[in-house]
Amino acid sequence: MIGYEDVGGVHIKYLYHCRRQLWLYLRGIRPEHLNTAVQLGEAVHDTSYTRNTPVDLGAAKLDFVDGGHWVHEVKSSGRPSPADEAQGRHYCQRLHRVGIDAQGAVLHYPKTRRTQRFPYTPEAARQADEDIRDALTVARAPASPDRLARSACRGCSYTDYCWTE
Amino acid sequence: MPAAARTYWLTSPCRIRRKDESLIIERDNAANVHVPVTDVRDIVACAETDLNTSVVALLNRHRINVHLLSYYGDYAGSLLTSETSTSGETVLAQARVAQDPHTSLAIARSIVDACAFNVRRVVDRKLLNRPYTVLQESIKNSTSQAHLMGAEGTFRRSAWEVIDTKLPDWLQLGGRSRRPPKNAGNAFISYVNGITYARVLTAVRLTPLHSGIAFLHGTMERQRHSLVLDLSEMFKPLMAERLLLRMAGRNQLKEHHFDRDTNQAMLSDAGRKFVVQAVRDEFAVTVAHRTLGRNVAYDELLYLDALALTRHCLEGAAYKPFRIWW
Ligand code: SF4
């Protein structure tokens, strides 16, 4: 199973969205096979902000880091979510660990032309560390976490898996 | 799983070449077809197909499997990409279920039951009522996979007999024969079963399950994807028996669709194209799914069933193999 350094942005995103999703993801249930919505997400990545090269940090993949050390993330959804924020925070944490003094995360929502800034404070750093530990706890659980309420699953790419009877 | 639209069916002899990130399909007497590789989920080669190393490298990179059907309609093999979705923990869970005689027999039982249910449903509910009741009794009393297969064989024989009463003389099966099929009816069934097997293999490869660990058929039996044999059971009647009866009933199958001699038969070139077209259209047909609350294509049903089995292995959720519900 994965260790502290292997926890990446996707894991953190799933941790916030649904713990069961994270648990399943780690066992090979992959959204790209389950739902075409994910492919839409990739298309947005391909067409927006092409001037900047993505930074590869092992487990974490960032869209780009600007000259002022802000991490930029492009989101395909229209609405900001706590998962997006957690993901941005996670990337800052990873950058700090390799010695880059990230200032915070800027989340871009091209669909609604919104931008949100989250400075990387000591409080955020503590939370980022806690998120990674939570993700590891979920990863190591022997049994799968329960499903969310059916209504909360709307739009989740794991619906086919979780709700086929 | 995206609809059957992203499966490419090659029905005439061709060569696949690579040009940058595209596949070029070259045929005699027809214009070349350019296909961007991202448009392809998998390829079913129903006729002689040539391809080379650089094509294989490109297919591999995009996780595209090529399924090859032999001249006689048997499934001949697949070019499978090296990367799979299998996950260690899931395969271990699958192996544990398969090794436990109690749980694996329970799955095998429900597969045989669902298969027979579907056969009865598409062939004749009334005439197969008794054989089905007898089978259910044998299923209950079966203590091994071999027993179950025997009981299924008996039921199947009754079903073949009933099917023959609904077919014109020249299409009758006279019992099931393979490698090579003895007559036109058997050639048809073999061919459609071969395609169904290939579709199920694609579906299984998208799940983290191991295609070689099975519950009804022997694990790794003759180096084949035994799990695919298991999961094909329920879908063969939906495709093969159902299409045979329908196409015969509508007088769509003609003698020129087959090449026959005294002791064997296979689809002719025209017949192969015609049958593949029919099967392909059938895989794209959609039905309203009850628990998912949306329409799903037949092709997707294979994948959903493989997912349900994954869930059974990983989480112990009940596994009810596919039954025709409409
Ligand atoms: S479908 Fe529901 S329970 Fe399943 S992963 Fe998605 S949100 Fe969680």
Task: Offer a concise description of the structure.
The complex is a heterodimer of chains A (165) and B (326). By secondary structure, chain A is an alpha+beta fold. Chain A contains seven helices and six strands, in the order H-H-H-H-E-E-E-E-H-E-E-H-H.
Can you walk me through this structure?
The complex is a heterodimer of chains A (165) and B (326). In chain A, a hairpin with a 4-residue loop joins β3 and β4 (70-74). Helix content of chain A is 43%, strand content 15%. Chain A contains 7 helices and 6 strands; from the N terminus they run ααααββββαββαα. With 165 residues, chain A is an alpha+beta fold. The two termini of chain A are 29 Å apart. Chain B is α/β, with parallel strands linked by helices. In chain B, the strands form 4 sheets. A 4-stranded mixed sheet of chain B has the order 1-5-7-8. Chain B has a 4-stranded mixed sheet with strand order 4-3-2-6. Chain B has a two-stranded antiparallel sheet with strand order 9-10. In chain B, α4 (129-141) packs antiparallel against α5. Residues 18, 20-21, 147-148, 152-153, 156, 158-159, 162 of chain A line the site of iron/sulfur cluster.
For the structure shown, list the relevant keywords.
heterodimer, A: alpha+beta, two-stranded antiparallel sheet, globular, B: 326 residues, alpha/beta, four-stranded mixed β-sheet, 12 strands, disordered N terminus, binds iron/sulfur cluster
